[in-house]
Specification:
This protein has 386 residues and is an alpha/beta fold. The chain contains 13 helices and nine strands.
Length: 386
C-alpha cells in the first residue's frame, strides 16, 4: 500500500529526443541527454537545477552513471531500475518518493534507444570507457592498476602496504567455513604472487564466485515485533564518479561525496564507527575508499592499513570480518550485498566469535559499482543497533 501524498510532486516538462534516421548516429546516452535538455527547456528550468537522474535502457549497463557523467552531475541522486516497458512509470513514482524524502528536488526521468540502427548489438563502446576502450585494456584489473599506480606516485603508497589489506581479510576468512580462500597469508605471500596488472598481484585481487543474497527492509514497528535485534538505517549517501571527459583524478572515488552525506544524515563521524564493511574488488579499492570515507587523510591510507590495523581484535578498524571479496566470495558485480549482510551480523553480534567486534552498535557498509579507475557508482550506509 502506498503512503505517498497525492499532489506532492508534479510533472512540469516533457520532450522527445530525435526519432528515426536523424537519430541513427547518436548513442543512447546522447538521446537521453538531448531529451533531458529539451524537457528542461519546456519546463523553464536548466541543467543547474537538476539533482536527480532516473533512467534505464538495456543498451547501457551503467546508464545512470553514464548520463550523470554526460550532464556533469556526479553528485546527483540516481536510480536505474529496469522493469521493461513500465520502468518509467515506476521512475515517476520513485522520483516522487525521493523528492518527498528530500533526496532531490528536480528529477529527470530519461530514456534512449538505438534498437533499430544497432540491431541486436549493444550500445556503442563510446558509452563505456571511451578513453580506454580503443587501447583494449585488460579489464577490470587494468582500471584498478591505473589507480594504484597513481596513488603510489602521488603518495608513496607501497605494494607491501596494499598487501596488509589482503592479510587482514585472510585472518578473518580462516574462521569462515564457506570462504573460498580460508588460508592466512602474509605480506610476503601477497607481493610474491604473480603480477596480474602492475602493480597488482594475484593476491591483490578478489575471488570470483557464484552466489548472491538478500536483505529485508521493513517498518520499525514490524521489525520490533520480530524479536530480533533491531538494526536501523541511520544514514545514507550515494554518488557517481566518472572520467570528466578525460580530466580525471584516479586517486579518489565517489566515496568523497557519498561518505560525508551518510555521516551528516546519521549525525556521527568516522571515529564513531566500530566496524566497516568496505567493497574489496582489489586491495587498492579498499585503501582509496577508507581515505575518502574519512577514516584517514588522503594519501595516508597506506599507513592506516599497515601492521594489522584492519584485523578484528588487533586493529582500530575491523573490516570485512567474513573475509570479504578478497577471501570469502565475490559474485560478479554484487559484492556490495555481502557487505551489508556482514555489517548486520556484526550489529546483531552474530559474527564468528573470533572476529566479532565487542559491543558493536554502529557499523558502516560501503559499495562501489563499476570500475574504480573509470566510471563507478558509490553508496554508503550507516547502520545502528538499537
Amino acid at each position: 500500500m502506498s503512503s505517498m501524498k497525492r499532489g506532492s510532486a508534479a510533472i512540469v516538462g516533457v520532450a522527445e529526443s530525435d526519432i528515426g534516421s536523424v537519430a541513427a548516429d547518436m548513442s543512447v546516452i546522447d538521446l537521453m541527454a538531448q531529451g533531458t535538455v529539451r524537457a528542461l527547456r519546456d519546463a523553464g528550468l536548466t541543467l543547474a537545477d537538476v539533482d536527480g537522474i532516473f533512467c534505464a535502457t538495456t543498451q547501457a549497463r551503467t546508464s545512470a552513471m553514464s548520463l550523470a557523467e554526460y550532464l556533469k552531475k556526479p553528485d546527483a541522486y540516481v536510480d536505474s531500475t529496469i522493469v521493461g516497458g513500465s520502468s518509467f512509470e515506476i521512475h515517476v513514482a520513485h522520483a516522487q518518493a525521493a523528492i518527498e524524502a528530500g533526496l532531490c528536488s528536480v528529477a529527470v526521468v530519461a530514456y534512449g534507444s538505438t534498437q533499430r540502427s544497432a540491431g541486436r548489438k549493444n550500445a556503442s563502446p563510446r558509452e563505456f570507457n571511451p578513453y580506454e576502450t580503443p587501447f583494449k585494456p585488460f579489464m577490470p584489473s587494468t582500471a584498478y592498476a591505473m589507480a594504484a599506480n597513481r596513488h603510489m606516485h602521488e603518495y608513496g603508497t607501497t605494494s607491501e602496504q596494499l598487501a596488509w589489506i589482503k592479510v587482514a581479510a585472510s585472518h578473518h576468512a580462516q574462521h569462515n567455513p564457506h570462504a573460498m580462500l580460508p588460508k592466512v597469508v602474509t605480506v610476503e605471500d601477497v607481493v610474491n604472487s604473480p603480477l596480474v596488472s602492475d602493480p597488482l598481484h594475484r593476491l591483490d585481487c578478489c575471488v570470483i564466485s557464484d552466489g548472491g543474497g538478500a536483505l529485508i527492509v521493513t517498518r520499525p514497528e514490524i521489525a520490533k515485533s520480530l524479536k530480533r535485534p533491531l538494526v536501523k538505517v541511520k544514514g545514507h549517501g550515494e554518488a557517481t564518479k566518472n572520467q570528466n571527459a578525460g580530466y580525471t583524478d584516479l586517486t579518489y572515488s565517489g566515496a568523497v561525496w557519498s561518505g560525508p552525506r551518510a555521516f551528516e544524515e546519521a549525525g556521527v563521524t568516522p571515529k564513531d564507527i566500530q566496524y566497516a564493511s568496505i567493497y574489496d574488488s582489489f586491495t587498492i579499492t579498499v585503501l582509496i575508499q577508507l581515505e575518502d570515507l574519512g577514516f584517514c587523510k588522503k594519501g595516508e591510507g597506506g599507513k592506516f592499513v599497515a601492521d594489522g590495523n584492519l584485523i578484528s581484535g588487533v586493529g582500530k578498524l575491523p573490516f570485512n570480518t567474513d573475509g570479504g571479496g578478497l577471501c570469502n566470495n565475490h559474485p560478479a558485480n554484487r559484492g556490495g550485498m555481502t557487505k551489508v549482510i556482514e555489517a548486520v551480523r556484526q550489529l546483531r553480534h552474530e559474527a564468528h566469535p573470533k572476529v566479532q567486534v565487542p559491543g558493536c552498535t554502529l557499523a558502516l557498509a560501503h559499495g562501489t559499482g563499476g570500475l574504480l579507475g573509470t566510471r563507478h557508482g558509490s553508496a554508503t550506509v550507516i547502520l545502528e543497533r538499537e
